[in-house]
Amino acid sequence: MKSSSVRLLLGVSVLLLSGPTVSAVSLSVRPNLQQLFSDSKLTLRCDEDGQTADGWTVKRTAGGKTKQCGTSQQNFGRIEGSSCFISTLLPSDSGVYWCENSSGKISEQINITVTGGQLILEVPALPVLTGSDVTLRCRFRDGFTHPVNLLKNGEPSRAERTGEFNISNVQQSDEGFYSCSVDLFAESPRSRLRVKASPSRPSPPLSVDRGLVLSLLCHLVVVCPFCISTVLMVSIYCSRRTGNTPAVSMEMPQRAGGGQGLDGVYDDITADVTTEYDF
Length: 279
Description:
Layout: H1 3-17, E1 26-30, E2 35-37, E3 42-48, E4 51-52, E5 56-62, E6 65-68, E7 78-80, E8 83-86, E9 95-101, E10 110-115, E11 119-122, E12 128-129, E13 134-140, E14 148-152, E15 155-160, E16 164-167, E17 176-182, E18 186-187, E19 191-193, E20 195-196, H2 210-241, E21 248-251, H3 261-271, E22 274-277
Parallel strand pairs: 2-10, 12-20
Antiparallel strand pairs: 1-3, 3-4, 3-8, 5-6, 5-9, 7-8, 9-10, 11-13, 13-16, 14-15, 14-17, 17-18, 17-19, 21-22
């Protein structure tokens, strides 16, 4: 491998390792469209969790030049509050827009196309979530409605007289480059419909029917004593059937006035005898 090729590969590696980091900050676009007619207005803002992101600047690359929003000659548009405002769009404003901070972190980039032609296709600038619905609308500069064809990736997809194309339950397969055309008349620029997976939703908390809980408690209060008494009765009955009754000991009392001879001896012996009976 030649030394020049080695230097080129090393340069690419350094560029990839030191590239900007994509942040959670997003670029808000109003109107939320990728294609706009010239002389239209555009408002851009850097947002984070629905709030203005402090310390972030709107930038763009158009015509091979990178600029940031501001009022000087080296910039584009003007800053109004926390937003970047372009009052009169020109075809030269077509380019890639994003947010960037002083540390070099950037947001996702959005392609904006400004045309001086007669036809545009209204494609959302921000990604569409899977499972949602979206409408792609062909618009003519004169405001009239014409039958148009919708093209996806350069191939005819479907035709509508109203110029509106509804996509229900958007899926990843719906992502692609769309445009609309009128036979022998005009074709809009192409813009990419971006599709993003919907965030997973947490399972709803289990709802408890208080009435059902009270009913169960009442049944337990009524049934438990009956169950306990039944168990005790069965236990006593089983004990009697198996002969596990306790032995009763009886002691024979001594006969008063112990006699002589055999009777006396018998009395002495029986006086000390204890007899057990099982009942």
